[in-house]
Amino acid sequence: MRRREFLAFVAPSVLVMGGLLLLPLYRTVEWSFERVNYGEDGEFVGLSNYGDALTDARLGQAVLFTVGLTVAVVAALLVGGYLLAVMVNRLGRAKPWVLGILLISYVVPHVVGATMFSWLFDANFGGVVNQLVTIVTGQEVLWFTDPWPNRVMVWLNTIWFMLPFSMLVIIAGLQGVSTEIIEAAKIDGAGPWRTHWNVIIPNIRGVLGFVAIISIMDILRTFDQLIPLSPQAVQIGNESIMLYIYNIAFQDGGQQLGLGSAVNVLLILLIGLMLFPFIRNVAREARQA
């Protein structure tokens, strides 16, 4: 490929990356060291915004909620996605139909899906789940105002719309496992549990790591589904980091763009910290391949 052709192919990508990613990232880092009002130049304040962010108990609660949601949901996605992928992968002609039905929750916009999901728990709409829980426990559960029931509802909703993605990726990984290796394990006397644990899962470890990386990045940015699912998020301590940034930067009458930018930078560092073990393992496997 000639140099001119190479530049013709690469230049659009470089321009898009620079305009939509690097430039906003540069401006975010710059504003994190400034006090910024709309329509005015920022005033340099050093590390003041970072100090305000790190001493804000509300941000600490948002970090706890978001990290707890991420850990619980990623574990459920890996285990549930694997079990569901194994079952769907064994289907015959019905597999495309089953996959199509299961993927509906993934393609529906988050706000729409979360609104429909909330009706299952809302007594005003005759929520089926709420009625069943009331019959079993004998008491009314306050899904939208009680902290822990509301957290469980948010966890279930996040699992509901992300599980099809993890299942689909894991199915692709399962189809790449050699049938000869599985047959050899059975000849050696391995049962179903040992075949999965000692043969299949090690062979798709890179795929599981990819599912974990994508899931962690998505869940740490939880925002829009909280609008219908947790309208009292700030008051009951179920505010995510992204919702916290939105509230302090654009709501609450403060419009603190500098503080919001500082929290954005801290969120990027948190994402990098949580992704590091998985990226390191994926890179190590890529070098060994």
Automatic annotation (TrEMBL):
GO terms for biological process: transmembrane transport. Its main location: membrane. One of its GO terms (cellular component) is plasma membrane. It comes from Pseudonocardia petroleophila. Keywords: Cell membrane, Membrane, Transmembrane, Transmembrane helix, Transport. Residues 63-278 form the ABC transmembrane type-1 domain. It is found in: Cell membrane. PROSITE patterns: ABC_TM1. Belongs to the binding-protein-dependent transport system permease family. SUPFAM superfamilies: MetI-like. It comes from the Bacteria. The keyword Transmembrane helix applies. The chain crosses the membrane at residues 7-26, 62-85, 97-121, 152-174, 195-217, 257-279. This is Sugar ABC transporter permease. It is a multi-pass membrane protein.
